[in-house]
């Protein structure tokens, strides 16, 4: 069973191949609605908004985990990933999406589902096998011609995240040079052991521009596929093994 909706302000698709799939799909969407209420940067009553209004505000264990992941990514990336915006506002969006996808996948697994995928705005967590009994496959979209697939991969039960400027414009910036938009690359796709890892590193790598693919190359368990503004693709050394 497959279901697509708008959730957390993004298109979301969930497919579950196991029995009683509707129950799991409804549970996952209910969880995403909860995440949006709690951590949206667009809601005045969210926990994130309360934290920014009052730095002494006691944060939940979930938000503590999200902030800790953000700080870890900032340190690992040499500051190219930074939740603190130039205006001082803490924006954990770069962590929340991947974190929420992984939590939803964990929820489905706890309910007994084994074969499924969750796609939130193009970032995907996979589990088990597809309908044909093989590995799940995913197409990397062209950042220049929407709908065109430039590379097909079989990531297995891993996470895949893409960061770039094609779909949402200049929403990612280099914290070391925030006044100048990133123009040398247009997208980078990262395959990681889980969607949290893939998502946070994809964001950091895109902020690095052309150097992002070398950053991914150095991370054990991750592979990347970067497309430059000139349309040139650069892969990490192990990415070709994922191709189909």
Protein described:
It is a single chain. The chain is an alpha+beta fold and 244 residues long. It has one domain: T-fold (Roll), CATH 3.10.520.10. The strands form two sheets. An eight-stranded antiparallel beta sheet has the order 1-2-3-4-7-8-9-10. α3 crosses α4. The model has no long low-confidence stretch (mean pLDDT 94).
Kindly report the CATH topology. T-fold
CATH homologous superfamily identity: ApbE-like domains
Q: Estimate percent helicity.
A: 25-40%
Structural class: alpha+beta
- Spatial arrangement of strands, main beta sheet: 1-2-3-4-7-8-9-10
Which descriptors apply to this entry?
244 residues; alpha+beta; T-fold; eight-stranded antiparallel sheet; two-stranded antiparallel sheet; 6 helices; 10 strands; 23% strand
SSE order and pairing:
Layout: E1 2-7, E2 10-16, H1 21-39, H2 47-53, H3 61-76, H4 93-110, E3 116-120, E4 123-127, E5 138-141, E6 149-153, E7 159-164, E8 185-192, H5 195-207, H6 212-217, E9 223-228, E10 233-235
Antiparallel strand pairs: 1-2, 2-3, 3-4, 4-7, 5-6, 7-8, 8-9, 9-10
Helix pairs in contact: 1-4, 3-4, 4-5
